[in-house]
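Why this split exists: single-chain examples teach little about how molecules sit against one another. For that reason, every record in the complexes split bundles all components of an assembly together and asks for one structure covering all of them. Below is a record exactly as it appears in the raw files.
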Amino acid sequence: MRNFILGVVITLLVLLLGGLAIATLGFLPTNADSVPPKMERRIAMSAMDASMERHAPRLTNPVPPTDENLIDGMKIYTMNCAGCHGGLDNKPSPLDRSFYPPPPQLIIYPLDDPEWHIYYAVRTGIRYTGMPAWNKALSDQDMWKVTAFLSRIEKLPPAVQDYWKKSTGVAPPPVNPQGGEHSHHD
Ligand code: HEC
């Protein structure tokens, strides 16, 4: 029994030191411009969803989705988020493939998550990715406004759609039958 335990301990030590050696000798890649393998993506995404499920408070949006607030949300999005998540011109961001993992393109593939989930991702960011925590850069009010906008991309009221069209020259995206935040990488 004692030898067995010793064997387990030594195996773990070898694995640990091996892992450290791989890292410190420079065998791990640093480049962000490659596509994460399918398996890695699947595991990371379910881990992220499970973690948000566990950590995020179930808040309801205190900002009413009036035309004015949604237009504010659209402006906040354009100024702070479009560079990574794609602009109101309905094109993927030029940085779409420049992050590891890549940023979801939230205009062409709108989120179908509840607002508490979106707000939590915006407020606290997502660790080990390019997604910043916005709680020091945006007011609470503004984070809720951009959340309201993002959760209604496909069902914006007519006045907000008009504003979108007028300010960009491009109409909001039509309802995407596939939906889903991550479908752009499949
Ligand atoms: C510097 C690039 C960058 C900027 C700027 C940025 N994000 Fe992100 N964001 C990312 C990346 C990368 C991810 C993907 C994280 C992942 O794969 O888990 C992400 C993920 C998200 C998610 C999570 C989606 C999900 O699957 O749950 C939301 C919501 C989001 N961003 C909203 C925003 C909003 C709103 C802004 C602006 C206030 C913003 N982001 C600004 C890079 C960015």
